[in-house]
Write a structure and sequence with these properties.
Keywords: FAD, Flavoprotein, Oxidoreductase. This is Acyl-CoA dehydrogenase family protein. Its cofactor is FAD. The protein has eleven helices and eleven strands. It is an alpha+beta fold. It has three domains: about 110 residues, Acyl-CoA dehydrogenase/oxidase, N-terminal domain (Butyryl-Coa Dehydrogenase, subunit A, domain 1, Orthogonal Bundle), CATH 1.10.540.10; about 110 residues, Beta Barrel (Butyryl-CoA Dehydrogenase, subunit A, domain 2), CATH 2.40.110; about 150 residues, Butyryl-CoA Dehydrogenase, subunit A, domain 3 (Up-down Bundle), CATH 1.20.140. The longest helix has about 35 residues. It is globular. The termini are far apart.
Length: about 400
């Protein structure tokens, strides 16, 4: 075996070369931040089930909130750069990637795609600077996959205000967010509308969901809205139906596919380092055929998934990405992620379940990524409808 130092990388096909020098440098800054600032502390926060708020200023300095949105203080970078950043965040820790996806993707995306010019000017610049943190309230206690047909949170017009009543569940960032985008059904027209609810609005309460086994550093909350009064100026002026909500989800679903690749990469790289240093039967286990077989299986999954996501981002940049394109990537990449993190745990043997070795965290977090932004089954049916022309969605 060569004595030359081996570089641990999961970018086997050099997809970073698709970025220009400036975007590649940004990606490397994100990686350095995750390696130096997040990895040393994240296990503690994951165990505690709390978000590391003291990391927010460092994330803000990276300038990556709302990466692909142009203007309003946003970076205005390409969908490919946006996706690779989501991947890099998740490679370091999926909870951090999810936090940024909720804030910069779902919350800022709702305002960017559905807000009036005045609303964009009012909220997006401070959100881009991460002076205001956003959340996104769509899922409800009794409605997840069927939320398009089952929004039960209501909005009632009362003069110049709207009165919101209902509950939202699994809402990341909600317990500390400054702004929460809440989707509710207009009782008069039955159209789904979007509202920006500001922190400390009377009647808006949150309770953190405890005892999660995945994404523990993400503070998901149950939101209760009881007579919450929202001014008309806080209703997203360009959101007229669930179609606009779906436009936001299409973009963020692509980001979740990239996050799945990042989760796979994080587990693979930790497993590879472990194999380089772990000795059994008087030699490093990296020299065993079965260990190399696991590593190549993992790397194959990562490479195939990353290549799919790269093409998806190119389609997005050309304004040609469809729901079925995003759904295919989310379904495929999360299945491959589940395999990959499992093989990383297998390679480590019993040590793979120790949090200090990191892989166990990726194994657990993969379960949440696998399910949110549309389950595999729902995304499969979206693609199936596209390729057959027949809807099998009940």
């Amino acid at each position: 075996m060569s004595d030359e130092p081996r570089i641990v990388t999961s970018d086997f096909y050099d997809l970073e070369a698709l970025l220009d020098d400036d975007d590649r440098a940004l990606l490397h800054r994100v990686r350095a931040f995750m390696d130096s600032q997040v990895e040393p502390v994240i296990n503690e926060w994951w165990t505690r089930g709390k978000f590391p708020m003291d990391l927010i200023p460092g994330l803000a300095e990276l300038g990556i909130a709302g990466t692909q949105y142009a203007g309003y203080g946003c970076p205005g970078r390409s969908p490919l750069t946006d996706g690779m950043i989501a991947m890099e965040l998740s490679r370091g820790d999926p909870s951090i990637s999810t936090f940024m996806g909720v804030h910069g993707g779902l919350a800022m995306g709702s305002i960017y795609l559905c807000g009036s010019e005045e609303q964009k000017q009012r909220w997006l610049p401070p959100m881009a600077r991460m002076e205001l943190i956003g959340a996104f309230g769509l899922t409800e206690p009794d409605h997840g996959s069927d939320i398009a047909r089952g929004v039960t949170t209501t909005a009632r017009r009362d003069g110049d205000t709207w009165v919101l009543d209902g509950q939202k569940k699994w809402i990341g960032n909600a317990s500390f967010a400054d702004l929460t985008v809440v989707w509710a059904k207009d009782v008069e027209t039955e159209r789904v509308l979007g509202f920006v609810v500001e922190k400390d609005t009377p009647g808006f309460t949150t309770v953190d969901i405890e005892d999660k086994i995945a994404l523990r550093a993400v503070q998901n909350a149950l939101i209760t809205l009881e007579g919450v009064r929202v001014p008309e100026e806080n209703r997203l002026q360009e959101a007229h139906s669930f179609r606009e909500t779906a436009n936001v989800l299409r973009l963020t679903r692509a980001g979740v596919a990239w996050s799945a690749v990042g989760c796979s990469r994080g587990a693979y790289e930790h497993a590879l380092r472990y194999a380089m240093n772990r000795t059994q039967f008087d030699k490093p286990i990296i020299e065993f055929q079965m260990v190399q077989d696991l590593l190549v299986r993992m790397l194959g999954n990562i490479t195939a998934s990353a290549a799919m996501c790269a093409r998806l981002s190119q389609l997005q940049g050309e304004d040609r990405m469809t729901d079925e394109h995003a759904s295919m990537a989310k379904a495929f990449c999360t299945v491959r992620m589940r395999e990959t993190v499992g093989w990383a745990r297998e390679l480590m043997g019993g040590n793979g379940i120790l949090l200090e070795n990191h892989v166990g965290r990726f194994v657990a977090d993969a379960e949440a990524i696998y399910s949110y932004e549309g389950t595999r089954e729902v995304n499969t049916l979206i693609v199936g409808r596209a390729v057959t022309g027949a809807s099998a969605i009940v």
